[in-house]
Amino acid sequence: MPNNPPVVSSVPVQRSLPVVGNLTVASNLPIIGNNLAPINPPVAGNLTLPSCVPVESSPPVPINPPTQRDRGVLTKLPKNLLFDGCSNWLLFKRKFERYARVQDLSDEECGDCLCWCLTGKAVDFYALLTVERETLPYAELMQRLQERFDARELPATAQGRFQDVQQEVGESLDDWSDRVLTLATTAFRDLPFAFATEQAVTKFCHGLLDKEAGKHVSLQLPTSMGDAMNMMRIYSHVQSACAAAPRDSQESEREESRCVHEVRRAPSPDTVSGSAVDKLTKVVDRILGSVERLSNSCGSQDDDSRVRQPVQVFRSDKDEGLYGEYAAEGSNEDGSQNRRLNKQRLVRYPEGTGCGGPRGHRNQHAY
């Protein structure tokens, strides 16, 4: 028995769409018996259902060309509002934010203006940031630039550098005061500004090249940098005025009659005259003669230092009762000469022959 059902060939297939009222039905509808079964129920009204419903897609957003206001924002940008990566980042940031607030710029406009303000190392860093993306949001760009270029010095290091600073030779008072204020602001940035100003005024007085003027101004206890500079100018003016005032006539005459040594330029080693060489030779000869005389006098004094010391001796047996004295030369220091003469006397007059006994008596053991 065949599995396929018999096909009824006598059933007509309607190719044209049947109209049910004002409703149009598609031709590709399933056939149930001799009627067409609609997929969707009929909708009342004049609505026409197409065979395929298209999906709506959002149209592309057109890119708005720059307006006249955008061009005005870039043309009104200050020429000196630039950052090269080496100058003060904090100062540039404050100036740029102030300009954006005055011009009432949006975040997109701030980002456009900021990229035009970068030069040098800063624009190179901006090029690295925009390798993967063409543009960066203004907040992210400002944060990246601050992390890169806002490297602040440690407070301890800045304070040590502030304590060692001194006024340089040729530096004016204005430049010296500006440098001291800048270092004080950096060193004491976490403290109130009044404290930093007080430290700057004190350092301004103590670091002056003119120590006398610095001491004079410091003793007057200035409260601000302007007061300290005014006191310093007054001191300099008074000092110069007193130096230029006419002095007493008697004092001037007394100073004019004072004798001073003539100051001449010292001759260089290459231009020494012959007379100078002769004078030096004579001086050297005179010194050598003095040294020789001193050495000779020292030798004669050594000979005279030997004194004559009496030595008690007995004469021969004939002069038995005669007592005499031998003059023996001896040294004051060690008496070595006396000891030598005594030895000779003992050898000449051995003990028991008239010289070894007591004074004036013959030795009884001589026989």
TrEMBL record:
Residues 248-267 have a biased composition (Basic and acidic residues). Residues 245-274, 348-367 are annotated as: Disordered. This is Retrotransposon gag domain-containing protein. The lineage of its organism: Eukaryota, Metazoa, Spiralia, Lophotrochozoa, Mollusca.
